[in-house]
Amino acid sequence: MNLDDNQFETLQKIAERIRHPVYLCNQHGRLLCNSHITSTSPDWIRILPFFQSRTPHYFSIIDTKQTYSVFSIDLNAQTYEYVVIPSFILPLDETLQVIIEQAVHEISIARMRQYTAQQTAKRARNEGFRRWIEGASSSQQDDAHIAKSFGLNVDSSYLCMICQLDPYHENTHFLEQQLMIEQVVDLLDSALPHSPFPSFLFVKGDMVIVLMEETGNWSEMSEKLLSFLKQMQILVSIQVNHTISFGASLTSCRITHLSEGYSEALEALQAGHLSAQSEYIQFYQAKDVPDLLKLIPRKDLVTFHQMHLHPLYEAGQNLLHTISVYLETHCHISETAKRLSIHRNTVIYRLEKCEELLRISLKDPEVTLRLRLALRIQMILSPHPD
């Protein structure tokens, strides 16, 4: 949520009047703006979430012997922000108090308007994402257009994670549950800028969906990712007084297959709930050969596929289709001929041609296993096997 020029000028005017910098932060300790240019957040900002006070208050840092004055800005019943001044503003200094109160009131009105407009935009964005992830788009061009509208890179792959509050106490009222969900969403949204990888947040019902862009191989990402998710669980536990769990897809997915990653993350989340766990991070468990193949880097899959099938692509589709059906029928020539509606001798001729081009023997079980895997990989790489 960006400040407009008038609000920034208001902060600067307060700073000039009291000769101290002025900061605007949200309730979770995220710096939104300040009266002077700086690229880093001050150390004391981490303390703000522990106060959760909506009235003017003060705190001091023992090491620096610095006192801070904090003034609250209410955005709605659950959400608020702070104007923080690194100085002790004397309550008895009525003139200065009036100046600050007027400035805070001016910022409050503008911020509430901004907040309302942003929440409306977020609801529309989340609804658009819900329709997309549930398969409402009809083509790859639609996927690319929609992904760009969400700020996603169409050439990147994304790990899908779904966060949900752990089961509530049976006496928890629905309204109380909704308030907790809103707090979790706000908290995670504030924390995402500190994520080790580019991340995007969406809300679908009572679930928070995070898409995290793949920027390296899995072994490099996994440790940082798990550490970040555990930090989020700790923050929610402290500030919301409830626990959350995460379900995550097995691997990252391209934009066109993001719905598969979402399904995997949802199944992983549900598996954790069924096992009566809480505050867990559950990754989707591979159940079949395609799931296991997805764990292998794409470039290695492409290399394996080309090594074992590329000569057949150059020879035309007849040979590739014949050897595929031949392997599906457990190497039965008569059944292969029947399925392809061709003569048995034609099948034999085509298989011999495959052996010649690939320089293999189809009688070798190791060879047929590699070919089966290459054909499975072809399905994963489709529609762009090369």
From TrEMBL:
Residues 319-377 form the PucR C-terminal helix-turn-helix domain. InterPro entries: CdaR-like_regulators, CdaR_GGDEF, PucR_C-HTH_dom, PucR_C-HTH_sf. It comes from the Bacteria. Residues 142-271 form the CdaR GGDEF-like domain. PANTHER family: CARBOHYDRATE DIACID REGULATOR, DNA-BINDING TRANSCRIPTIONAL ACTIVATOR ADER. Belongs to the CdaR family. This is Transcriptional regulator.
